[in-house]
Amino acid sequence: MRVKEYLILLTAGFLLITSSCNYKQEDILTQKERIWLHNHPSIKVAVSTTFPPFQFTDANNNSVGISIDILTLLENNIGYKFKKAYYDNWKNILDAGKTKQVDVILEIQETADRRNYFHFTKPFISIPHVIIMRKNNVDNITIDELENLRIAVVDNYAVHEHLKSLYPELKLYPLPNDLACLLALSNQKVDAVITQQGYAIYEIHKEVLSNLQIVGNIGYDNELGFAIRKDWAMLTRIIDKGLSRISPKEQDKILDKWIPIQAIPFYRTYIFKSIVIILFILFILIGLTIYLWNKSLRRSVATKTYQLNKTKDKAEESNRLKSSFLANMSHEIRTPMNAIQGFSELITSDELTQEQKLKYSQIISVNCDSLSKLIDEILDLSQIESGLISIKNQKIDLINCIEEVINTNKLAIPKDKNVQLQFSNLLKQDSFEINTDPFRFRQILHNLINNAIKFSRQGNITISVNYKNANELLFCVKDEGIGLEEASIPLIFDRFMKIEKDASILYRGSGLGLNICKKLLELMNGEIWVKSTMGHGSSFYFTLPIY
């Protein structure tokens, strides 16, 4: 008995399977239509990669969306596999269809202009166009209430043409795609967006644009079907047949899959994110306040400690400089005084020849000059620092003044030094008037030339003058002497700074000359600086204004 029942069930199952297979194998196309498809094996369908939820590319680079699912059902119904051609924007798809680079366009609204290029199937989906605004606006807004508002639409969409034609008074802002429109609205760059409801709902959920809402319907629906090239009417009939076999249940299933109408969870809303951001900012501000307060206390303690150390260092440095200055002055005064005293006693001797007495007199004179110069430098520095010195400007012949200083210093060059002084007049004028203090100018130039002679054993010392700009002259005293170490250059103009460049030779001087030059030039609205390389000489530059 059990064997008989099993055979009956097996026979019934076989009949059901056979019936099902026969149904699936039923061809909805005529023989002529089937032959036409057979003769066109590579029909191209334009597919967008950037238009969710209708057609787009997912994370795995697969074409998905409402229209792709409809296309799959169509292919099953007519037993034909289309070739896909991918595009990233709507304009390129439309242009490709018009030029017959593709044969079919998915999901397109029929318009008068497009009928010049395409046949259209019956619509397989109807999508209303809606008005989207930010949530601080009221519901049930009509298109007539959008006058004077900035409205974003997608360029070249059918709704764009519709609005331009029927509502020319609207301020339309065409943007490249729907997402750009929604983001512009969310960021308050426009006041409203008009687009397809399905796309709007999908992107608002996907991008969590929780400050946006649908506030109205413009009464213009997208009746979306397939567009087929104008010369292929047969294909239009074939696709219409395939679409007609898609049941309402299958359509609803596809729509429910891609357009989930559900509330956005509170934790994904704009309000929740705003609260979290505010709390986070408050937490950061409190933490930052505590940190800055502690840092301020540490900085205050560090500042006071630094000031105390600086005061201490300054006092120690002042004491060191004072000791160094006094020791140096003692040496600089004692040396010429000893020479004056010693040779003054010798010169009274009757045993000396007239030639020896003349030589000793010259030595006494040189040391008197050295002592006088030292006293002058000390007095100058004292007057400058006490503000008692004044600059007395007058018109002078600059070229003549420079030549006088050079000639004076030529006479002072020691016989054991093979040094030549040269003047380079780059002004190219034999006479040039300048309004300055002649005494202080000579003092500065003499000091720089004297230093160049002191630190040069041989070679040329070139004194030059040129224009620095329309309002200033540039002077330079360049020697070929022993030069300066790099570490000494920033210190060379400091008070009491006396740098011994050659340990084997003691260069006499107070260490005040360059500091006096610097301070005098500041009073004369000029400046001074030096460029030097150890072993390759130094170049001292200074400027004076042309009045």
UniProtKB/TrEMBL annotation:
The chain crosses the membrane at residues 270-293. This is histidine kinase. It comes from the Bacteria. Residues 328-547 form the Histidine kinase domain. Its EC number is 2.7.13.3. It comes from Labilibaculum antarcticum. Keywords: ATP-binding, Cell membrane, Kinase, Membrane, Nucleotide-binding, Phosphoprotein, Transferase, Transmembrane, Transmembrane helix, Two-component regulatory system. It is a multi-pass membrane protein. Gene3D superfamilies: 1.10.287.130, Histidine kinase-like ATPase, C-terminal domain (3.30.565.10), Periplasmic binding protein-like II (3.40.190.10).
